[in-house]
C-alpha cells in the first residue's frame, strides 16, 4: 500500500514537471468527460421527469373534477351536491384533495369538506369551454395545483356554465421530485464511480503490455536479456523491433570496435617492440648510446600513449545497458592471476566484501580498474593486501590497501595526475592510474589516496550508486 | 635452459632468438601454434614465451593445448593489448606471467629468470650445494665464494644438473640444453664437457657431486637449496 502511495506521489511530482503518466492523463480526460456529460444530463432528466409528473397530477385532478361533475345535479335551476361524494378524499376534513364549484359569476357555490379549513382565494376566469391547469398560492403561501373545468350542466342556458375546480398541494409533488432527484444523484454518482472503476481496470489491462515492455527493458538494461521479445501488441511491435535492431547494432558495433582496437594495438605495438629491440642493439655500440636512449624514450612514450588511448576508447559507458557486475568473482579471478605472478611474495589478501555485492560498471572497465589497482598493491606490498567495500545511501566506497611503503603526502596529487609515474622501473605502470581515473570519471566516481591502517597506501574509490 | 619462443612477427622473433641465445639459452623460435605444438612434442623445453595475438590458433588456445598435453614448463605471455581480460584469461589458461608489448629485453629476461627459478623450486637468485654456489643472474659458479672458471657450456650443464638435483638427467636432455639443432649433437661432447666440469670442481674444492648412472645419464648427488 505504501508503495502505491509512493508511486502516486512520484506521479504527482512528475505531473508538475509536465510529464504525467499516460494512464493518469487518460483517466483525468475520461473523468472530466464523464462529469461534463452527467452535468448536461441532469437538468434534462429533471425537466423530463417533472413534465411527466405534472401530467400525471393533471390527469388525476381531471379525474377528480369528473367525479365532482358526475355527482352534481341541477334541481330547479340550483346546483345540488350529495352529502357524500364517491371519492372519499373530498369528504375527509384533512385530506389533501380540495374541490370547489363556482357559478358563472364567479361565486363559490360549493366546497368539499376537505376544503373547509383552507382559505384559498381562487377566482375562475370563466371564458367558455376551457379546462385549465395551473398553480396558485393560498394566503399562507402554500402552493396548489389547480384544475379548472367549465361545464354547462344543462344545454339550454348559456349562462349556466359552472366551474368545477379541484386542487392539490404541490408539496407532495415536491417531495416526490426531491426524492427522485436524490435517487438520480445517487445513481448517476454510482454510475460514475462504476464507470471510472471499469475505465481504470480497462486502462490497467491495456497498459499491462506497456508495463511488460518496461519490465523487459529493465532486464535488458540489467543485462539479463539480450533483446526484447516479440510478445507485444501490434502497436508496440514496431517500436520493440526498432529497439532490437538498435541493440543488436550496438552490440555488434562494440564487438567490432573492441576487435579492431585489439588488432590496432597488436599491429602498432609489435612493431614498436621490434623498434625497441633495434634500439637495444644500437645502444650496444658506445657511439650510438645517446641516440639509442632518445629513441627508446620516444618509443616508450608512443607505446604509453597508444596503450592509454586504446584502453580509454574501449572502456566508455555503453548506451542502453546499465551494468551490474558481481564484485567477488571478479576479484577472485584477478587475485588468482596476481597470486600466480607474485607467487614468491606469498601475498595475503583479505576480502571484506559482502558475497553478492555488485558494482554499476561494465565488466571490462571494472576489470581494468581493479586489475590496475590490485597490481599496484601486489607490487608494492610486503605481504598483505586488503580489499573492502562499504555502502551508504548514495555511494559505494571500495578501498584497496597494502602494507607497502605508502605514498608520501606531497606526491599523492602528482601520481593521481594523468600519465605521471613514480617508478621508471616498471614501464607501462604509469598509464595504470590514468586509466583508473578515466574509468571512474566516465562513471561519475572519484579516486582518493591516503594512508592505510596496514601501513601502506590506501586507494579509495567512490562510486555513485545510480 | 631450452626456451620456446612463439611469435608471429619475424623481426621480434629473431630479436628474441638472438638475445635469449646470447643470455645462454637454447632457443626454438617458431611463428605459429602448430609449429610450437610440434616442437613441444619433439623436445623438452624449460620455458615458453607465447605471443597472445598469433594467427590461426590463438596464443590462448595454444597454452590450453600445451597444458592439456601435460606440458609443465612455465609459460610467459606477450600481450599487445595489455588489458586485464587477456592477462586473466592467459593465466587462467595455464600461463605463469605476462609482459606487455613493447617491453625492454631486460624486463623480459628478469621475468623469465624468475619463472625458471620458481619452476625448479628455487625462488632465490642463487642455488647452493655445500661450498658450491651458482649465481643465477650473473651465470657464475662459486666455490667457497671464489669464482670458478667455467665455459658457458660447462656452466649450463652444471646449472641444469643442479636444478634437477637428485634426478637422473639423460644425456639427450643435456644436449638439448646446449644445441638448438639435432644435427650438431654428439654424445661424446657431453661426456667431454662433464669430464672437464668434474675436474674443475675437484681441483678447486675437492667436490665430487656428479655421478654417472650407466646407460641412463648423470646425477647431481648433493642436496641444493
Shape of chain A: rod-shaped
Order of helices and strands of chain A: HHEEEEEEEHHHEHEEHEEHHEE
The percent of residues in helical segments of chain B reads: 40-55%
Mean pLDDT of chain A: 83
| Largest sheet properties of chain B | 5 strands, parallel
The SSE order of chain B reads EHEHEHEHEHEEEEHEHHEE
How many individual helices of chain A? 9
Q: Please describe the biggest sheet of chain A, giving its number of strands, its sense, and whether it closes into a barrel.
A: 5 strands, antiparallel
Name the average pLDDT of chain B.
Answer: 87
- Give the number of helices of chain B: 8
Q: How much beta of chain A, percentage-wise?
A: 15-25%
Instruction: State the helical fraction of chain A.
Output: 40-55%
User: Which two protein chains have the largest interface (Cβ within 8 Å of the partner's Cβ), and how many residues from each?
Assistant: A-B, 41 and 30 residues
Q: Which parts of chain B are unreliable, with pLDDT below 50 for 5 consecutive residues or more?
A: none
